[in-house]
Predict the 3D structure of the following.
Amino acid sequence: MPMGAEMRSIMSTAARTICLGLLVASWGAEAALAADNAGMPGVAAAVSAGLRATSPERAKRADFEHETPSREARQIADWVVDSGDSGGLPFVVLDKTLARVFVFHANGQLRGAAAALVGLAVGDDAVPGIGQRKLASIRPEERTTPAGRFVAALDRNLHGGEILWVDYETAISLHPVITSNPKERRAERLATPTPLDNRISYGCINVPAEFFHRVVSPAFKASDGIVYVLPETRSARQVFPSYDVYERARQEAGSRLLSAPVTSQIDTDIVRH
């Protein structure tokens, strides 16, 4: 082969390799179209197949239905479903900042959502030994709803009322709203459209009584479940070993596109040309 032809072949190979890198980097339908227009139908087909197989739309995620959760609530719920972190059990996501609780089936389908009352004090940690102290001894700044992942189970309180134990050690439970102290206006606080007045409890999570009996209790009747309490002084990723479901899908898709079948197709195209 004359030197000029050999150099042209080398340059053509390099150009095609760079082109593939750009196709993978751009990662979209436009990349497949560009490959097809550039005379590389094999690459176009592989890119299109990769897009179909690994589109973020195919990542497992929670279904919030008509609800509009915060970014962190959606991120954690999607991660729970995609990773299987709840172990096939029903789960709850509590967003303390927005004072809203979401109850899901094990598969990530929303059972229901409602406003919630949370601890009076801002914070993500419980005071050591607080579960053994009398309520009267708990200072206002100690009345936090701790963040984290908790295995929850239905039980009865001392008065026979049904509750969902979230963390027995720190005496945190999710239960129907307590209205025994009229001055606290707990029911009224739940009914307002803003979360600004939803901090009132000693740390427990209060929800509307109707919501508890219609959604929470049936969800946990047959088994225990998991409660994820989102943090408010730290990021969700500092509290949970979570990952971005969509970013993970994109990374996995990119890795598959760089696999042998695509490279072989490019090599074949180069030999034919």
About this structure: The longest strand covers residues 148-156.
